[in-house]
Design a protein that fits this description.
The protein is α/β, with parallel strands linked by helices. It is built from 19 helices and 16 strands. It has a domain of 148 residues: Isoleucyl-tRNA Synthetase, Domain 1 (Orthogonal Bundle). Strands 1, 2, 3, 4, 8, 12 and 13 form a seven-stranded parallel sheet that branches. A four-stranded antiparallel sheet has the order 6-5-7-9. The structure holds 5'-O-[(L-methionyl)-sulphamoyl]adenosine.
């Protein structure tokens, strides 16, 4: 049995409606989760909502409703979106659930016992929008302005419980040095190392100025800082904070999924995930996640997306894209054109349309349609035999599958997508070079024609397989049109093998991705 796999998204704030930022992170995690399930791993894919904190409290106040009501409403909306986008998360954790709250309290008690959490007084530069303190150095670097909202940082003093982050500086530095891929991409790891060199100060982990949060155990008036509460979701979902007698201890069965393979997060929340979170885990004597992957941002038509500019790709906009181009097309654009690397990616309606047309209509759609049409026309829709045993194709396919597996392992979704596309391109090249439609004119060529079309079909099936995590709906159609073999039930080693479609098996001509008229395509986000 191969190793269990675990991937997580950040848990999303419930004071916001779902938008491209959430859709992006969740979609790329979904692609990876599907890929690992496909190769036979037992996958746990976690997402959920972050429901406590001042921001949520204030948003609820502004609407005149209790924070729990706001949380319920928006958590339901996030869950609805997961379902309509066919995202395959294994669980949806909400930080107001008793299973989470109880474990957070257990874990904090443990940290108080070890002395990693203590009561102290703190003064610092506070970013009210982000609910985050900055060190003097960092605040100076930021010109005493929030890097997110641009609003001035405020000087704040509090008596609070602290997490002894400073005690973990050496161990963290060593962990980064020993595990060069702990934080990716490398640019982001360097950024974290740079900030760590400024020194690590203890972090206040409770507040007394608000009430919408988890009560600090045995400390009346103190509420757990939302970020500490939120980070712990990654292990409370797996039951790692349970005591054997607690009702939620059955969650413990999930402990096999820890440590996570990937925490996928946006770059603006990396410090919490790459520095504070590992230190907390060290204090709790738990293993660290294998990799914290920080993606960059989507921008819109060259500009930062923001509510005030009104150019945020929000849910209604996303839904317009999925209704015009289909859900698979949306996933494809997210996964292959998104800000996975250290640079931001520009979301443009025209670019979306071009990628759809070039990759999906002209390549992934057209190639199987050509192959299916020729098998239909020349061989009555039954797979002709190949007297050459695939020629060089078995080797080419295997090399490509290997490459895809390696890319997926390291979360190189773009590389994995390219591997699948590459096989479609190679089939197109073979068709263009051998011109089966000319060969078909002379019956003497039948054996050759038969081999060529068999090789095309066998290769198309594998190419489709490699794109299945990206394009689950259309690639399921492709698999059934191309022999229906090796569907979800079979194991990976037989599915990935060249030549799985038996001779004589029906092959259908299918239209996977309809051409979309550019003129009726979706308006840019800013016009929506
Ligand atoms: N609640 C915290 C995370 C706690 S995790 C223990 C949080 N929530 S959030 O709702 O603000 O998360 C937003 C996620 O969406 C982040 O990963 C963020 O990077 C991502 N995005 C928000 N805007 C984005 C873009 N414009 N582009 C891509 N992703 C961005 O932070």
């Amino acid at each position: 049995m191969s190793q269990p796999a675990c991937i997580t998204t950040p848990i999303y704030y419930v004071n916001d409606r779902p938008h491209i930022g959430h859709a992006y992170t969740t979609t790329i995690c979904d692609v990876w989760a599907r890929s690992q399930r496909m190769i036979g791993r037992d996958v746990f894919f976690l997402t959920g909502t972050d429901e406590h904190g001042v921001k949520v409290e204030k948003s609820a106040q502004a609407r005149g409703i209790p924070p729990q009501e706001l949380a319920d409403e928006n958590a339901a909306e996030f869950q609805r979106v997961l379902a309509t986008f066919a995202l395959t998360n294994s669980d949806f954790i909400r930080t107001t659930q008793p299973r989470h709250v109880e474990q957070v309290q257990t874990l904090l008690r443990q940290l108080m016992k070890t002395g990693d959490v203590y009561l102290g007084t703190f003064e610092g530069w506070y970013d009210e929008g982000q609910e985050e303190y900055h060190t003097e150095n960092r605040a100076r670097e930021l010109n005493y302005l929030s890097p997110i909202s641009g609003k001035p940082l405020v000087r704040a003093t509090e008596q609070n419980y602290y997490f002894r982050l400073s005690a973990f500086a050496d161990r963290l530095a060593k962990h980064f040095a020993d595990h060069p891929t702990f934080v990716r991409p490398v640019e982001r790891a360097n950024e974290m190392l740079g900030r760590m060199r400024d020194g690590l100060q203890d972090v206040p982990i409770t507040r007394t100025n608000f009430s919408w949060g988890i009560a600090m155990p045995d400390a009346p008036g103190h509420v757990v800082y939302v970020w500490i509460d939120a980070l712990l979701n990654y292990i409370t979902a797996l039951g790692l904070g349970t005591t054997p007698s607690a009702p939620e201890s059955k969650l413990r069965d999930r402990s096999r999924y820890w440590p996570a393979d990937y925490h996928v997060v946006g770059k603006e929340i990396l410090w919490f995930h790459a520095v504070i979170w590992p230190a907390l885990l060290m204090a709790l004597e738990l293993p660290l996640p294998k990799c914290v992957y920080a993606h960059s941002f989507w921008i819109a038509d060259g500009q930062k997306m923001s509510k005030s500019l009104g150019n945020f790709v929000d849910l209604p906009t996303i839904e317009r894209y999925t209704s015009v181009y289909g859900l698979d097309a949306w996933r494809w654009y997210m996964a292959t054109q998104g800000p996975l690397a250290a640079t931001d990616a520009d979301f443009k309606a025209k670019h979306f349309h071009e990628i759809y047309t070039n990759d999906l209509v002209n390549t992934v759609g057209n190639c199987p349609s050509r192959v299916g049409a020729m098998i239909g026309k020349y061989f009555g829709g039954k797979l002709p035999s190949d007297s050459h045993n695939g020629g060089e194709w078995p080797h080419r396919c295997k090399a490509t599958v290997d490459k895809w597996e390696r890319c997926m392992e390291v979360f190189d979704l773009v590389g994995a997508a390219r591997a699948g596309m590459d096989l479609f391109h190679q089939v197109d090249v073979m068709i263009n070079d051998t011109e089966p439609f000319k060969l078909a004119k002379d019956p003497a060529n039948t054996p050759r024609l038969s081999s060529i079309l068999n090789q095309c079909a066998q290769t198309v099936r594998i190419a489709g397989l490699l794109l299945e995590p990206f394009l689950p709906q259309r690639m399921a159609d492709l698999q059934s049109a191309f022999g229906g073999v090796g569907s979800g039930k079979s194991d990976w080693s037989s599915r990935k093998k060249y030549g799985a479609i038996p001779d004589g098996h029906p092959i259908e001509k299918i239209a996977l991705f309809p051409r979309v008229d550019g003129a009726i395509a979706v308006q840019p986000a800013s016009a929506g």
